[in-house]
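User: I'm new to structure prediction. If I give you an amino acid sequence, what do you actually give back? Let's try with this one:
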Amino acid sequence: MSFSSATACCCSSSSAHSYATASSSSSKNRGGTNKTSTSLRQKSRSVTRAVKVAADAETAENTTTTTNTSAAPEAASSAAASVSSAAAATTEKPEPELKSDMGVDYAPFRDLLKSGEWEKADDEHRRLMCVLAGEDAEDREWVYFTEVKNMPVTDLKTVDALWSHFSGGRYGFAIQRKLWVAQKRNWAKFFKKIDWTTGENGDYRKFPNEFLWRADAAPGHMPLTNALRGTQLFEALMEHPAFAPPKTAAEIQAEELAKVQDQVTGAVSRAQGEFGDLMRKGLKGLKKPDWMS
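Assistant: Good question. You get back a string of structure tokens that encode the predicted 3D arrangement of the chain. For your 293 residues, that looks like this:
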């Protein structure tokens, strides 16, 4: 109850007492004071109503205060729950395990990605590709496309998982393959999609300083794979079992049939060549008939 409400109630009670006293003192002359008594009764009723209104106002104020007080903890609890949910949603996923079938240490590569040193991480990635391809690739410091099949699935998945984890799913072989397939395996469109081209003419980025070594480059912008001398290496990586879905029975059958056709074509070609050689050798030892002279 507020201070002003209390004052109003006290004043109203005092007025009621005054009017009651005045009515009692005038009872000696009842006939001449009927009108005055009626007036006093009316005023008393008014005062009573005023007191009731003030009491109702006090009750309403107390109820509102109680409701607001009880609602405050609920609102605070709801806000805390929202903050807690948001924090849980932004909790980082655990780092990928550094699995390797070849005993390769991926910790230096992981640390470079974690610190956002994208160019150095890409250099380390290229070195790792040579390690996974075999000793010959390590010696020459570049990978030949036929060596990709030697790379273990486990190791390629580890390398790709690290790219994906520290870039928020932006970089890695898996996202590159997804974009490549979305462009219907059209290399020109794919390179444009991952921002490996510049200018209106779509000139290819060739040198390291032309690429964008930052966290917000186009999806699929990293890692780099040299495609200036052809796309065979890139395609071999994209179709590696670590990233490509398992082939269907029909696809496997079609590949086997194509191999048989290639073998038959090669055999026929070799037979034709051998027959030609025999014919030429045989003709050299023959003399022309007299009638042809």
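You can read the tokens as a compact description of the fold. Here is one thing that stands out. The two ends are 143 Å apart (CA to CA).
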